[in-house]
TrEMBL record:
Functional description taken from the UniProt entry: Catalyzes xyloglucan endohydrolysis (XEH) and/or endotransglycosylation (XET). Cleaves and religates xyloglucan polymers, an essential constituent of the primary cell wall, and thereby participates in cell wall construction of growing tissues.
Single GO term (MF): hydrolase activity, hydrolyzing O-glycosyl compounds
Family designation: Belongs to the glycosyl hydrolase 16 family.
InterPro entries on file: Beta-glucanase-like (IPR000757), Beta-glucanase/XTH (IPR044791), ConA-like_dom_sf (IPR013320), XET_C (IPR010713)
Taxonomic lineage: Eukaryota, Viridiplantae, Streptophyta, Embryophyta, Tracheophyta
Localization, UniProt: Secreted, Cell wall; Secreted, Extracellular space, Apoplast
Organism whose genome encodes this protein: Digitaria exilis
Main localization (coarse): secreted
Keywords: Apoplast, Cell wall, Cell wall biogenesis/degradation, Glycosidase, Hydrolase, Secreted, Transferase
Entry protein name: Xyloglucan endotransglucosylase/hydrolase
Top-level lineage group: Eukaryota
One protein family per Pfam: Glyco_hydro_16
An annotated GO BP: cell wall organization
Top-tier EC class: transferase
Chain ranges of the GH16 domain: 1-154
Length: 315
């Protein structure tokens, strides 16, 4: 388990008809705190052949599942033909989500959030599951197991953070995982470890990153709880309401007009996506070079391995 950190993976989603199939990359402590769990989510919401994929981000703190903080975006590339990097940054002050090293969402902690902000140690998970009741077009399209098995591939995992003492003492947790430099165990120096994380290149929100995040949201965001006044007549305290952004959304929080863009071609992605992915790979390589000698050796030995998760029909 980790008490704050940066969690990242390159993921390729299942292709063809995947309505109702959710692929999730997330942190949680639900197995330890069943009624007071914290969670940070990337959820890929299934797809109908020929349509762009949608991804949802969310966070919970202290079991606050009744106050969902969902945002949804249309991915500007085909995530089934190539690996793309998805990352979660979690500190005591904020949470940020990244797609191909571009920040797409930042939630800054404020006192009024109280226990709704994730604050307890969490583990990293990846799952593929049947969410027919809600995932694709609000449950209109369900999982069709004739198109299975539904395979999601994960590789190039990277962890940077403060590991809780006593968690993961064996070597198995380093298989296929790069323990990036600075990722030490928590203890008396936990505050110092987090300060290192907050000062690292991945965590510093530069002007360039803020501008890239604004562009992504303008071009790809299709739902935000901050603009869903039917659900939350008064915006939740951490919402940074941007008036120019708010005007684009209905009182349901959904985009007023459908995004107009060409569907991504299979087997190719936009030049900007390729450039972002290349930049991400370069930064990942630089981080790996700075890792400890043991972690670097493990990564060198295991970097060709990729984990696959499969959803199949039960007999």
């Amino acid at each position: 388990m980790y008490h704050h950190g940066f969690f990242s993976a390159s993921i390729k989603l299942p292709s063809d008809y995947t309505a109702g199939v959710v692929v999730a990359f997330y942190t949680s402590n639900g197995d330890v705190f069943e009624k007071r769990h914290d969670e940070l989510d990337f959820e890929f919401l299934g797809n109908i052949r020929g349509k762009p994929w949608r991804v949802q981000t969310n966070l919970y703190g202290n079991g606050s599942v009744g106050r969902g903080r969902e945002e949804r975006y249309v991915l500007p590339f085909d995530p089934t033909t190539e690996f793309h990097r998805y990352s979660i940054l979690w500190t005591s002050a904020s949470v940020a989500f990244y797609v191909d090293d571009v920040p797409v969402r930042e939630v800054r902690r404020c006192p009024a959030m109280a226990g709704d902000f994730p604050s307890k140690p969490m583990s990293l998970y990846a799952t593929v599951w049947d969410a027919s009741t809600w995932a694709t077009s609000g449950g209109r399209y369900r999982v069709n197991y004739r198109y299975g098995p539904f395979v999601a591939s994960f590789t190039d995992l990277a962890l940077l953070g403060c590991r809780v003492a006593g968690a993961g003492d064996g070597d198995d947790d380093e298989h296929n995982i790069r323990m990036v430099a600075g990722g030490g165990r928590c203890g008396d120096g936990a505050a110092e470890e987090e300060e290192k994380l907050r000062a690292s290149e991945v965590a510093v929100m530069t002007v360039e990153k803020q501008q890239a995040m604004r562009r992504f949201r303008e071009q790809n965001m299709v739902y935000s709880y901050c603009y869903d006044t039917r659900r939350y007549p008064a915006a939740l305290p951490e919402c940074d309401v941007v008036e120019s952004e708010r005007r684009r959304f209905k009182d349901s929080g959904h985009l007023r007009f459908a995004l107009r863009r060409r569907a991504p071609r299979r087997g190719s992605s936009s030049s900007s996506s390729r450039a972002a992915a290349a930049a991400g790979r370069a930064r990942s390589a630089a981080a790996a070079a700075a890792a400890s000698s043991r972690a670097a050796a493990v990564a060198a030995k295991k970097q060709q391995a990729a984990a696959e998760m499969v959803l199949v029909a039960r007999e």
